């Protein structure tokens, strides 16, 4: 859910989330409710099939732009290609992960040097090293706990990968596994971090996972879970063209990765399983007042944010 809490100076009025929602949505019981899947506990991540790079986004950690997108930015110098770490043209370098939520859908955009179909001619068993799957954790639990309790959702977005779920799309009740052993990859995040620390050179040269530190306790550092081993199919996905991304307000010029992989999917399967939060929408009579308050808080946030 979009976070309208501002970081304010001492002289600025303090507006709590509870007060804000009360002012915005103090309407009749018949008012409709908007549902939000991306709450402040949500963490989203994806890795390559060999764990040569990865990225995670924590919802509400970064500001949401005027088009509703929030971006997690990874180090541009921590992709591993054999003994090469980072460097121009490294095929495994991930630059960013971005999310946007609308009334019906969740939009995803990944900017990276690796294409949707991965890298051919590698030492992987099938000759191709591609993308793992994209995982959504809507709980406040770490990845391992959510995985063990069946609370993870996953999206298979790359048809050439080694995911064990059969179709492209969103899955619930997901179990995550590792495919690094058949992709000539790292058996653990610890091994990946060590390789980057040993061989990286240049600016911003250290392992990174976007919004999470490389040694984060959110993941079990002794594992390399990157792909769905099982799950319940919920809905298909729709790939987005550059023009559709532009129409959705995504900033195509913000990152330098060679490819932007983008898609959206219907979020009703997530909401049906109780992971969405409902918030009353303002009645017609309060629409202008609500809009004015939202704009005011937005301006305060921009002015007083660190």
Task: Report on this structure.
By secondary structure, the protein is of the alpha+beta class. Helices cover 18% and strands 30% of the residues. The protein is built from six helices and 19 strands. The strands form six sheets. A six-stranded antiparallel sheet has the order 3-2-11-12-13-16. A hairpin with a 7-residue loop joins strand 9 and strand 10 (128-129). The chain is globular. The two termini are 21 Å apart. The model is unreliable at 1-31 and 284-306 (pLDDT under 50).
Can you summarize this structure?
It contains six helices and 19 strands.
Give the helix level as a range of percent. Answer: 10-25%
Determine the N-to-C terminus distance. Answer: 21 Å
- Structural category: alpha+beta
Strand order of the largest sheet: 3-2-11-12-13-16
Major sheet, described briefly?
6 strands, antiparallel
Radius of gyration: 20 Å
Query: What does the average pLDDT come to?
Result: 85
The poorly predicted ranges are 1-31, 284-306
What is the count of β-strands? Answer: 19
Task: Tell the overall outline.
Answer: globular
Tally of individual helices: 6
Question: How large a portion of the residues is in β-strands, by DSSP E?
Answer: 25-35%
Order of helices and strands: HEEEEEEEEEEEHEEHEEEEHEHEH
């Amino acid at each position: 859910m979009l976070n309208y809490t501002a970081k304010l100076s001492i002289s600025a009025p303090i507006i709590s989330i509870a007060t804000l929602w009360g002012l915005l949505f103090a309407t009749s019981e018949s008012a409709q409710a908007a549902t939000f899947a991306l709450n402040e506990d949500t963490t989203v991540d994806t890795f390559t099939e060999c764990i040569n790079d990865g990225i995670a986004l924590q919802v509400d950690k970064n500001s949401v732009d005027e088009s509703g997108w929030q971006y997690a930015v990874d180090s541009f110098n921590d992709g591993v290609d054999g003994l090469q770490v980072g460097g121009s043209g490294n095929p495994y370098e991930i630059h960013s992960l971005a999310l946007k939520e609308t009334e019906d859908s969740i939009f995803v955009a990944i900017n990276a040097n690796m294409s949707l179909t991965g890298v051919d001619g590698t030492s992987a068993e099938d000759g191709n090293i591609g993308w793992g799957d994209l995982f959504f954790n809507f709980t406040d639990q770490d990845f391992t706990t959510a995985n063990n309790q069946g609370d993870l959702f996953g999206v298979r977005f790359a048809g050439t990968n080694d995911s064990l779920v059969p179709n492209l799309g969103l899955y619930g009740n997901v179990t995550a596994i590792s495919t690094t052993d058949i992709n000539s990859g790292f058996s653990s995040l610890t091994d990946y971090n060590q390789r980057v620390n040993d061989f990286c050179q240049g600016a911003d040269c250290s392992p990174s996972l976007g919004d999470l530190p490389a040694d984060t306790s959110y993941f079990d550092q002794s594992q390399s879970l990157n792909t769905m081993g099982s799950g319940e199919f919920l809905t298909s996905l729709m790939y987005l063209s550059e023009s559709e991304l532009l129409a959705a307000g995504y900033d195509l010029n913000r990152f330098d990765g060679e490819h932007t992989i983008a898609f959206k999917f219907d979020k009703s399967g997530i909401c049906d399983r109780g992971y969405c939060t409902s918030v009353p929408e303002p009645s017609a009579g309060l629409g202008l007042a609500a809009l004015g308050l939202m704009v005011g808080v937005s301006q305060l946030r921009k002015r007083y944010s660190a």
